[in-house]
Design a protein that fits this description.
This protein is mainly alpha-helical. It has one domain. It has six helices and three strands. Helix 3 packs antiparallel against helix 5. The longest helix is centred in the middle third of the chain and has 22 residues.
Length: 135
């Protein structure tokens, strides 16, 4: 018989502001540090922590402007949301957010970038095939 973890319903979330930004970055970095996709993209754990942290920071900053970036007051959890239909990044958005997302990607070693984009092409193809309705 499987044990079920109780679901907490009393978790408070707040918008990420400048005072909570670093905690949110730390939380997302911890959450994805051992994620299988990111382990494939950047196999070395220390390099993954160092190289992906700027990307998470850029994503949080982007989400603060063009979506929602939420965290718990203690910084133990964080989430970034971009509304359906608004997931295609424009050059204006990149400029307005200081080129942080593309700069974070450029800082990845070429072989890691190649693995990332190959993975994203696969995921995007699966998404188009399997999810045909707005969500």
């Amino acid at each position: 018989m499987a044990m079920r973890t109780p679901v907490r319903t009393d978790v408070q979330v707040v918008n990420v502001d400048k005072t909570l930004r670093q905690r949110a970055v730390d939380s997302v970095t911890r959450a994805f540090l051992n994620d299988p996709m990111w382990r494939l993209v950047v196999p070395d754990r220390k390099a993954r922590d160092r190289l992906l942290r700027p990307m998470w920071r850029a994503l949080i900053d982007f989400s603060r402007v063009y979506g929602r970036a939420l965290t718990t007051p203690d910084g133990l959890g964080a989430a970034c949301w971009i509304a359906p239909g608004r997931t295609h990044t424009t050059i204006g958005q990149i400029v307005r957010t200081g080129f942080k997302l593309p700069l974070a990607m450029v800082r990845l070693p070429k072989d890691a970038r190649d693995r990332f984009f190959r993975m994203m092409r696969f995921i995007d193809g699966q998404h188009r095939e399997l999810v045909r309705e707005p969500h």
